Amino acid sequence: MSGTLYEKVFESHVIAEVAPNQYQLAVDVHLLNEVSSPQAFEALRERGLRVAHPDRTFASADHSISTGGDVTRFDDALCEAQVRLLGHNTAEHDIAYFDPLQGLHGIIHVVAPEQGLTQPGMVIACGDSHTSTHGAFGAVAFGIGTSQVRDVLATQSLIMEKLKVRRLHVTGRLRPGTYAKDLALHLIHRLGAKGGLGHAYEYGGTAIEALSMEERMTLCNMAVEGGARCGYVNPDQTTFDWLRGRPYAPPHWDGAVGRWRALASGPDARWDDEVHVDADTVKPMITWGTSPDQSIAIDDVVPPPSQAGEACAQWQAAQDFMGLHAGQPLRGLRIDTAFIGSCTNGRLSDLMAVADYLRRAPGRVAPHVRALIVPGSRAVRQAAVTQGLDELFRERGFEFRDAGCSLCCGMNADRLKGREICASSSNRNFRGRQGSPLGRTLLMSPVLVAAAALAGEITEAG
To answer: Which of 214, 260, 303, 447 makes the best surface tag, with the fewest CB within 10 Å?
Structure first.
């Protein structure tokens, strides 16, 4: 087949066109969590239906699970009910469950790739918007609502429109001290939080090819924050090397790799739009507002709302909420909480980057700061322990916790209080996102979060 990877994968999964630009699309892998699936399972029971393909359905408790070290202990009855119900529903329908009682759990967008469930050419759906993460492997992956979770459980398909494809061509190479998170925030800043509406983002160019798989996952994870429905990277040797030997990797390896190579956008590919970016110009980024596109480079100042044009009032409201003003630098801003984790930056390479920084930087977490490091999965946590990272983190004043979404989403016991300011490696800085309706979130790379935790304020990680 010719065209872009998105076109090849989409067209090969079309079952029928049910209306103009509305297609019934086959789903290869359906991922579940405890928050968006209970109503879907109940809808199946009301209709007397079973899950159509339990062998293509996989679940993990992540949003509501406790990260305090005891997965059976909850501070919230609703969280406990959601996790218990996921275990009940998966058992009833013979669905593979990464059971926290067996130490298998983690954020589904971390667990599925490390298990090898995420593979090039797949259509992957999950009731969570950051399903775009899986596009790092050359998959077409997107979040869906609870009614669509029901549809996929019942039919292993859903109705979807065909998207336009924008190629983000990133040349050069990220400079030392600049990470995939900075590139993601830079792109969102440039194109806007709604710039990708109606599009799939194809990330390509020499800078993208140089990224590791985990860095590519960070980038694709944030595609949805730029308004895109999904984002992807064409599969290459980096992809294949990462997948080889994973539990769910294809048994006929060479044949699979041959098929995967053919999926990449070829010389005949035509994109609906192209954006060119020089990675050498990207600096460490940090958000100042209540949307991921409201950001600046760490050495810049908060911009005046007049720069926002029609969004002037929104910018002013964001600055008022954050307690900031135009012309103010973020360096030196006192923080209360530091959070390293989430499906964006809770992988082993993220923790290793933080550890490398801590070995260079003196001091401990500032006395007034609560600093959490939360692995994205139990497997990540165990790997960090094996390398002795847990001891380093604790020695320097960080809480090294169990796996889960934790402070990213505020759906569990890990939450901001009142007007606390949080330096966070997560993906959203919306009002109330981290559990307090008044809490204030500044997004940045894990290393910048670690630097802020030690200094007690926003600072550069020199």
So the answer is: 303
